[in-house]
Amino acid sequence: SLVFFMRMFSFMKRRSRRHGGRSWKSRLVSLAVMAALVAGAFWGARWWSERPLADARSAYARRDWVTAVTLSQSVLLSGRCKPQARLLIARSLWQLGRWEQAEAVLSEVPAASLSEDDLTIRGQGLLKIHWWPQAIDVYSELRTRRPKDPAVLQKLTVLHFQVGKGETALELACQLEKFSESAAAAYCIQGAIQEDLRKPELAVQCN
């Protein structure tokens, strides 16, 4: 890290003054060369480990989703690049509108390991196929990353209502009410939830 190399720079400079010999500038050059070699080795190892997916990524980049799936599946079956291959297969299947197949591929991939863009697309797909419990997991993760996004909170609220968790949905709807742009929607959702919970008198107040 930057802090590490600054400390090394300071140490080498003091040592040079104390013991003589090579100048601290010369030592700094050596340190820079060493850092470059370490960085090169790291990125080289990463490139080599993900090299089997190069053709699949190229197919994805040119929007050849079917070929991307086929090539990624071959890599996955070989036991290499498993997380990366699964994600590339899922992304390609999303593009093809094959949401259920994508979910089968992602069954072993935790939501926390996905990017926000991937989570958003995955969530939209789960809503299309009405897989509410899985969608709750996805939008819960999105909410931890975007706590001030009322759209995410609103989806999470409705999803809890869909799976019969009325009390939780009501709590979330009350939080949604705090966002001025979503207050009206929050009142409507609260009314529907409270009516479902057999509290019509509260529903009238909310609506």
Question: Any descriptors?
Answer:
207 residues; mainly alpha; 0% strand
Please provide the count of β strands: 0
* Class of secondary structure makeup: mainly alpha
**What composes the largest sheet?**
none
Query: Could you list the spans in which at least 5 consecutive residues all have pLDDT below 50?
Result: 40-49
Kindly report how far apart the N and C termini lie.
56 Å
User: Overall mean pLDDT score?
Assistant: 82
Q: C-alpha Rg, in Å?
A: 26 Å
State the helicity in percent bands: over 70%
How many helices? The count is 12
| Dominant shape | extended
Please indicate the percent range of residues in DSSP E strands (runs of 2 or more). Answer: under 5%
Order of helices and strands: HHHHHHHHHHHH
Give the quaternary arrangement of the chains: single chain
What does this structure look like?
The chain is 77% helix and 0% strand. By secondary structure, it is mainly alpha-helical. α9 packs parallel to α11 and α11 packs antiparallel against α12. About 5% of the residues have low confidence.
